[in-house]
Design a protein that fits this description.
The complex is a heterodimer of chains A (145) and B (292). By secondary structure, chain A is of the alpha+beta class. Chain A has helices spanning 16-32, 37-56, 91-94, 108-115, and strands at residues 9-13, 61-69, 75-83, 118-123, 129-136. In chain A, 36% of the residues are buried. Helices cover 34% and strands 26% of the residues of chain A. The two termini of chain A are 21 Å apart. Chain A is globular. Helix content of chain B is 62%, strand content 9%. With 292 residues, chain B is of the alpha/beta class. Chain B has helices at 11-20, 22-29, 33-38, 43-62, 73-90, 95-103, 107-115, 122-165, 187-204, 221-236, 248-257, 270-283; strands at residues 170-173, 176-182, 208-215, 240-244, 265-267. The termini of chain B are far apart. Chain B folds into 2 domains: 11-160, Globins (Globin-like); 170-283, STAS domain (Transcription Regulator spoIIAA, 2-Layer Sandwich). Chain B has a 5-stranded mixed sheet with strand order 1-2-3-4-5. Classes of the chains: A alpha+beta (145), B alpha/beta (292). At the A-B interface, helix 1, helix 2 and helix 4 of A face helix 10 and helix 11 of B. The structure holds adenosine-5'-diphosphate (ADP) and magnesium ion (MG). Magnesium ion is lined by residues 49, 52-53, 104, 108 of chain A.
Chain lengths: 145, 292
């Protein structure tokens, strides 16, 4: 594994073109880490949802992509979506299927949570929102666990 | 239009330099990447282009507006050099690189003035050099501006073409149309798809529409919402929709995301969807039943 795959990348999220770049970068990095097609699709879809939330609800921000390893044969990719927007007053409510304050389907936040392994939201009214997700690759064939 | 240059102005020196020694300057310019790379057929062409640029620059100097990108002489240069810089930009050069190539035009006239100063003293030569530098600075701005404009036009044109191209509506069969969607179905694209589709439904009197999403890389909740809206408006026009080309990885993801394509009929491939469509058509005697 070369070093540049290990380093963190940060991408801006200010418009639709940026969203496209985020999807492409996430897919490329997931491919490099050896994720299968289904895993790639899940991660890219979650990234598309959360980056769009950063743009639409958070007023823009950034996404950082960081490959991680659990030291036990599993490769993971952590994505962090950061904005300095209005924040989410009630996270539990926002995580309810179908809840949207903007005429969306209200499936982005809750659906993304189902698509990945780790999911956390750090937010407060007026302090912006950071959503972090990690998807782990399946264990190596002869799982070292 | 033509301000008379004040007495003692270096303008006549520079204008004279550009006109009287145009052959020597052109011979040197023609070998620079800017001209050489564009006029690949014959060197004479390059030399001729250099002559034209030199004449225009001389006109700018005489107009007394070497610092004005709107000076009349620059309009000829715009046309000439715009084509050249566009061609350089098409061959992959950045604006910075093009600017450097234009900057390389600076040396030749100054070298000639130094090596063969004629009657001009050091003082006059210095002022001429300053004026020439100023003129070249303006020229660089003109070219950057033209290149940017050119690029912007290309990008706009391509975006428009891509939108149109990527959303064709194809008549497959009597009353059956298909839309092979390619690329991300963002809000602007989905609007174009919707409009094209509704027009096609009317034009072909379609009762069934196949929306094929094989070429859509990601189906998230916004894309799903756009698809559902398209299906709903097609239905209002009297056409049912079948969505085809949902790849297995995307199907799994949609389900886990919690999206419900609901009442819409889906098929794995375009061929499956076509089969379904033909079955339905054979059930309904053609043109006899009123549309629902
Ligand atoms: N980054 C964010 N900043 C502020 N509010 C957010 C953010 N992300 C999500 N929300 C809130 O959570 C709600 C649910 O989000 P989501 O499930 O993606 O649905 P949708 O985007 O369709 O509205 C949003 O409508 C919005 O009120
Ligand atoms: Mg959302």
């Amino acid at each position: 594994m070369s070093t540049d795959e290990r380093t963190e990348t940060t991408l801006p999220v200010r418009n639709d073109t940026d969203l496209m770049a985020v999807r492409q970068q996430v897919r490329a990095m997931a491919q490099r880490l050896g994720f299968g097609l289904v895993q790639q699709t899940k991660l890219v879809t979650a990234a598309s949802e959360l980056a769009r939330n950063t743009l639409v609800h958070g007023g823009g921000g950034s996404v950082s992509l960081e490959p991680t390893s659990d030291g036990d044969g599993r490769e993971g990719l952590t994505l962090r979506f950061v904005d300095e927007g209005p924040g989410i007053p009630d996270v539990e409510l926002a995580l309810r299927d179908g809840y949207s304050t903007a005429g969306g389907l209200g499936m982005g936040l809750s659906g993304s949570k189902r698509l990945v392994n780790d999911f956390s939201v750090d937010t407060a009214p007026g302090r912006g929102t950071t959503v972090s997700i990690t998807l782990w690759s399946p264990l190596a064939p002869f799982g070292r666990r | 239009m033509t301000d008379v240059p004040p007495a003692g102005s270096p303008a006549p020196i520079v204008a004279g330099l550009l006109r009287e020694r145009k052959e020597q300057v052109a011979q040197r310019w023609a070998d620079l990447p800017l001209f050489q790379a564009v006029f690949t057929v014959t060197r004479d062409e390059a030399v001729e282009a250099c002559h034209a640029v030199l004449e225009s620059l001389a006109e700018v100097v005489e107009s007394g507006r070497p610092d004005d990108i709107e000076a009349p002489g620059f309009s000829t240069i715009r046309r000439q050099l715009a084509a050249m810089s566009a061609s350089r930009s098409h061959s992959g050069l950045s604006i910075g690189q093009i600017d450097r190539e234009v900057g390389a035009l600076r040396a030749a006239p100054l070298d000639l003035l130094e090596s063969d100063p004629g009657d001009f003293g050091p003082q006059e030569r210095l002022r001429a050099a300053l004026l020439w530098s100023e003129l070249l600075g303006t020229l660089r701005v003109v070219i950057i501006e033209t290149t940017l404009q050119e690029n912007r036009e290309i990008v706009d044109r391509q975006r428009q073409q891509l939108m149109e191209m990527a959303t064709p509506v194809i008549k497959l069969w009597d009353r059956l149309v298909a839309v092979p969607l390619i690329g991300m179905l963002d809000s602007a694209r989905s609007q174009v798809v919707m409009e094209n589709l509704l027009e096609a439904i009317v034009e072909h009197n379609a009762t069934l529409v196949i929306l094929d999403i094989t070429g859509v890389p990601t189906v998230d909740s916004l894309v799903a919402q756009h698809l559902m809206k398209t299906v709903a408006s097609a239905r209002l026009m009297g056409a049912d929709c079948v969505i085809s080309g949902i790849r297995p990885a995307i199907a799994q993801t949609i389900v886990q995301l919690g999206l419900d394509l609901g009442p819409v009929t889906t098929r794995a491939t375009l061929a499956d969807a076509l089969e379904l469509a033909l079955e339905r058509q054979s059930e309904v005697p053609k043109g006899l039943l009123p549309r629902q």
